[in-house]
Design brief:
With 447 residues, the protein is an alpha+beta fold. The protein folds into three domains: 3-49, Transferase, Pyrimidine Nucleoside Phosphorylase, Chain A, domain 3 (Up-down Bundle), CATH 1.20.970; 78-156 and 167-324 and 430-440, Pyrimidine Nucleoside Phosphorylase, Chain A, domain 2, CATH 3.40.1030; 331-419, Pyrimidine nucleoside phosphorylase-like, C-terminal domain (Aldehyde Oxidoreductase, domain 3). It has 16 helices and 14 strands. The chain has a five-stranded mixed sheet, sandwiched between helices. It has a four-stranded antiparallel sheet with strand order 6-9-11-7, sandwiched between helices. It has a three-stranded antiparallel sheet with strand order 10-8-12. Bound molecules: uracil and calcium ion.
Length: 447
């Protein structure tokens, strides 16, 4: 069968055979199928979809397209967590040390910022000296020794996903549930995790804007996990505003340290406790999520979580003790407030626009070759539902250069919408999805 026949078949809405899907994944990994044919098939999949069998086969073939990590040298179940990507979403830096401080083993491969979303590797690199290019041996040794490591994926992990992701990014084919599910789960399976906890974001700053679509994506991933024999749990969580108050690389590290020190609370802490407690259940350290949350809160109070972060950063080469003194993190020279232009309630935020605003300031990349400025970003001073008066500060911009202030102020005043009526309050978690069940938070189930 020629590749054009596979494209035509999917264009007609017919399911592809396992062998055809294997040709697709291998063709992407080896470069034997040209990008224009891969693009055409990706677009056909966006329109026609893939059933559960096709999605699972694609995941397995992508996983097998490169190296697979062997974590069997680490005692107990290694648990991993993955977020579909958000703004001000620093849960990794909060929950990895907390879960490790509570006895869990976390071997986490993270990514760079993508589009409007931030990436954990870029955040870690804002810590002077911290490395995110650990070899497989160093990575495994560090998890054995201190219980956690966060590093970038090795060159040859899921090459099929690398090729397909680069094409999807520039052909409008990112937002497609079977493609997202196979992309994420193939990497998690190849990295050797024994159990996986997923944070599927929903809302205007997420890949999937509605709760229904996000639950569908979560189910697709949980089902692949079941077929692969790995427990996968997913929480569908809100991304209608930045999760934490800080957006930007060093700023997000600072917020994680403030939370682990017990000096800051809020939605970022709550979601980190939710996800982390499922990780502790998944690796058998606790039997209920309530117990997991209690143990994690104790690790904040005792300082064990902060000490674990310090230990991890040091193991990865950090030269400055930022956990004891956050002023050792890179700091932007220019601070400018963004004032509210009218009285009223914060009724909505264009979360994607807030992410792009920080990207334009230098916190993210527009092209993969762009250099990141670790110090820049913003700190939100309002949340949805807050009441403000004209002139009140909506957020503080942290800039490299005062000439960046004007466009950023305008972008933020447009992104934060002020109205007359207080908006309806939305829960942080709208659904929990496991292989056995989907539990919606009250009021969020299918009508
Ligand atoms: N993150 C991934 O790794 N892959 C996707 O397709 C989307 C988000
Ligand atoms: Ca991420």
């Amino acid at each position: 069968m020629s590749f054009v026949d596979i494209i035509l078949k999917k264009k007609e809405g017919l399911p592809l055979t396992d062998e055809e899907i294997r040709m697709f994944a291998m063709g992407a990994a080896t470069g034997s199928v040209p990008d224009y044919q891969l693009s055409a098939l990706l677009m056909a999949i966006c329109f026609q979809g893939m059933d559960a069998r096709e999605t699972t086969t694609l995941t397995m073939e992508m996983m097998k397209s490169g190296d697979q990590m062997d974590l069997s040298g680490i005692d107990g179940v290694c648990v991993d967590k993955h977020s579909t990507g958000g703004v001000g979403d620093t849960t990794t830096l909060v929950l990895v040390p907390l879960v490790a401080a509570c006895g869990g083993h976390v071997a986490k491969l993270s990514g760079r910022g993508l589009g409007h979303t931030g990436g954990t590797l870029d955040k870690l690199e804002s810590v002077p000296g911290c490395r995110v290019d650990l070899s497989e041996e160093q990575f495994i040794e560090q998890v054995r020794k201190i219980g956690c490591a966060v590093s970038g994926q090795t060159q040859n992990l899921c090459p099929a996903d690398k090729a397909l992701y680069a094409i999807r990014d520039v052909t409008g084919t990112v937002g497609c549930s079977p493609l997202i599910a196979s992309s994420i789960i193939s990497k998690k399976l190849a990295s050797g995790a024994g159990a996986i906890v997923l944070d599927v974001k929903t809302g205007n700053g997420a890949l999937m804007p509605t709760v229904e679509e996000s639950v569908q994506l979560a189910k697709a991933m949980v089902d692949i996990g079941r077929k692969a024999g790995k427990p996968v749990y997913a929480l569908v969580t809100g991304m209608d505003q930045p999760l934490g108050t800080h957006v930007g690389n060093a700023l997000e590290v600072k917020e994680a340290i403030e939370i682990l020190s017990g000096r800051a609370t809020g939605d970022l802490l709550e979601i980190s406790l939710d996800l982390g407690s499922f990780m502790l259940v998944a690796c058998g350290q606790v039997s209920t999520v309530e117990e997991g949350k209690k143990r994690m809160r104790e690790a904040i109070e005792s300082g064990a979580g902060l000490r674990k972060l310090e230990e991890m950063l040091k193991a990865q080469g950090a030269t400055a003790d930022v956990c004891r003194d956050v002023t050792l993190l890179p700091q932007a020279p220019v601070l400018v407030p963004v004032p509210a232009t009218r009285d009223g309630y914060i009724v909505s935020m264009d979360t994607k626009a807030i992410g792009y605003c920080t990207q334009h300031m230098g916190a993210g990349r527009a092209k993969s070759t762009d250099r990141i400025d670790p110090a820049v970003g913003l700190v939100m001073q309002v949340r949805l539902g807050d009441h403000v008066r004209t002139g009140d500060t909506l957020c503080m911009l942290h800039l490299r250069d005062a000439s960046q202030a004007e466009p950023a102020i305008r972008a933020m005043q447009e992104a934060v919408c002020i109205g007359d009526e207080a908006p309806e309050k939305r829960p942080l978690v709208s659904a929990f999805v496991s292989a056995e069940e989907t539990v919606y938070t009250k009021g969020y189930g299918p009508k």
